[in-house]
Design a protein that fits this description.
Length: 280
């Protein structure tokens, strides 16, 4: 299914080598950290074999280049893939599949979890305590994810010439991240929108795990003029379309800026009453 059939997100070009995807909470169906085929697998191969395909995908957490195994806590589908030792990171809890949350590996029963190496933003503030990750704080290609207080997801990729942790953190804070973490960097960095690579990777490296975003289908996808609908009105139009109260004309147009005739208004009122009666 084409990307245009899913609810929208925004890609912001920070500079010539840095981009940030801003994915509204309402656009997200689910988020996952998924295990690749052992011992390692490219993102393209992972995408090709998936029956249910993610709309956004990026390399995941740090892994051992020799064995292809994650080096810290990594939970996939409720199962720990390595070991837990009080590692902090970000993950997804059962029952909240579209919300990225901050926490500790042992703090709860994660559905998906990835250790941060390191955390970049904690409670809206730049984190400067990198711990053992300090040895990796040099200028290189970078990737990271974050979440706003309202649940919006942030996905950052940095191509050549690269960036330090502090520079990444400043971008996340600038775009109102409540929490943000660094993912694997260097040759592992690769971001895809469906099957299209949208970052500028230096190699097609096979990795241990990936971070996937599955978007909700867009109820307005069949409207050829859906982009003319104002953002503030979109949720209300979606509801009207989903409930069958309003629909496009014979040309597939919603005509959001056109005046409404008395005839059209009568149809809308009648259909609204039908929906209300069916819910009694």
């Amino acid at each position: 299914m084409a990307l245009g059939n899913f609810k929208p997100f925004q890609t912001v070009k920070i500079n010539s080598y840095t981009q940030l995807d801003i994915v509204p909470y309402d656009s997200i169906e689910s988020l996952t950290f998924e295990k690749c085929k052992d011992p390692k697998e490219t993102l393209g191969s992972f995408y090709a074999r998936k029956e249910k395909k993610p709309q956004i995908m990026i390399n995941g957490g740090l892994f051992n280049m020799q064995t292809g195994h994650n080096v810290m806590s990594f939970v996939c589908e409720g199962k720990e893939q390595n070991y837990q030792n009080g590692f902090t990171g970000m993950g997804i809890l059962p029952g909240l599949p579209n919300l990225l949350q901050y926490g500790v590996d042992k703090s709860c029963r994660w559905q998906y979890f990835m250790t941060a190496y390191p955390m970049l933003v904690i409670k809206g503030k730049v984190n400067t305590d990198y711990g053992n990750a300090s040895s990796l704080n040099y200028k290189t290609l970078r990737s990271g994810i974050g979440v706003r207080d309202n649940g919006d997801l942030l996905i950052l990729t940095v191509d050549k010439p690269g960036m330090l942790f502090a520079d990444m953190a400043k971008i996340f804070v600038q775009y109102n991240a409540l929490f943000a973490m660094n993912l694997d960097g260097g040759g592992s960095v690769r971001k895809m929108h469906e099957d299209k690579v949208v970052s500028a990777p230096t190699e097609n490296r096979a990795v241990d795990n990936v971070f996937c975003v599955y978007l909700r289908e867009d109820p307005l996808a069949k409207l050829v003029d859906k982009d003319e609908i104002s953002p503030w009105a979109r949720p209300y139009v979606e509801r009207m379309i989903e409930d069958g109260i309003m629909q496009g004309d014979k040309d597939g147009k919603f005509r959001p800026k056109d005046p409404v005739t008395r005839e059209e208004l009568a149809i809308v009122i009648a259909r609204t009453l039908e929906v209300m009666e069916s819910q009694l």
